[in-house]
């Protein structure tokens, strides 16, 4: 009860979040003839872990709203962040279970720089993010050429302004570079989870075929025996999908996601054949040099 009281007190300080929490709770848990009227009741019904996810997702939504992103684009980026957070948490449960909830939160915020670039470039950059041939490497080069920095650097700067902890800033800056991430975070177990989850898409509507190849390779190298076979990535996404769908429904009960992660990934597999993308040769894990 003490923890619930603490959560309720914090949430009540934010009118927008309070309204969101009450709306979600009444839409998800309460029948038409009753309603939840207090924040404490809502926290008790949802549970503190769901409330944490709701609060963090709400902050992302508020940022995207402030930047006036297209509603469908904003939803796609929020769902992509949620997908990565769930994936990172599942991976952390294998590698570092005591830090799984922390890893979820860190991963949720790793791509906050993307939305700012979309807002700046209008539709051009958003369209590129949906192009399956627009790889992460191409994206980082494009961002630097057009904006003067890439989304990982922008994410770190935004995180600093938001007052996020140091580990959030480091993961935002280095989540696409496993070696640098290992040097910055200095905890190999959670680095594995965060880096592999970062291979999932920036836009939930478009999974990059190259990233799916790297995802399969990384899962086999870093989590050998947990997800096996020729369809390693499919087996992993099969585990991610239920929790992703559950949280997506809680966070947006009136517009539950229609995105099937497995279907989206299978389309990326087809694109691998169509674009003749070579298999990765990267070796995991790299060691941080002194």
From TrEMBL:
PROSITE patterns per the UniProt record, alphabetical: HDOD
Family matches, as InterPro entries: HDOD (IPR013976), RNase_Y/CdgJ (IPR052340)
Residues annotated as domain HDOD: 1-178
Name the record gives this protein: HDOD domain-containing protein
């Amino acid at each position: 009860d003490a923890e619930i009281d603490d959560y309720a007190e914090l949430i009540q300080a934010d009118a927008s979040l309070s309204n969101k929490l009450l709306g979600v709770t009444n839409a998800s848990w309460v029948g038409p003839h009753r309603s939840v009227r207090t924040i404490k009741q809502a926290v008790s019904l949802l549970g503190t872990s769901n409330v944490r996810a709701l609060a963090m997702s709400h902050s992302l939504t508020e940022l995207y709203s402030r930047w006036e992103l297209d509603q469908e684009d904003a939803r796609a980026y929020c769902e992509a962040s949620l997908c990565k957070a769930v994936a990172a948490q599942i991976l952390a449960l294998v590698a570092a279970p005591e830090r799984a909830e922390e890893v979820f939160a860190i991963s949720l915020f790793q791509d906050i720089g993307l939305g700012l670039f979309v807002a700046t470039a209008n539709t051009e950059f958003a369209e590129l993010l949906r192009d399956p041939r627009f790889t992460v490497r191409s994206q980082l080069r494009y961002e630097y050429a057009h904006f003067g920095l890439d989304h990982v650097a922008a994410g770190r700067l935004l995180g600093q302004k938001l007052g996020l902890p140091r580990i959030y800033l480091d993961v935002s800056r280095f989540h696409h570079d496993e070696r640098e991430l290992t040097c910055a975070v200095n905890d190999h177990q959670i680095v594995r989870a965060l880096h592999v989850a970062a291979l999932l898409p920036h836009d939930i509507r478009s999974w990059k075929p190259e990233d799916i190849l790297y995802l399969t390779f990384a899962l086999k190298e870093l989590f050998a025996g947990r997800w096996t076979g020729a369809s390693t990535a499919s087996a992993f996404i099969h585990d991610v999908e239920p929790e992703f769908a559950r949280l997506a429904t809680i966070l947006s009960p009136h517009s539950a996601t229609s995105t099937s992660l497995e279907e989206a990934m299978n389309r990326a597999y087809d694109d691998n054949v169509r674009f003749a993308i070579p298999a990765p040769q990267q070796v995991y894990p790299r060691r941080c040099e002194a």
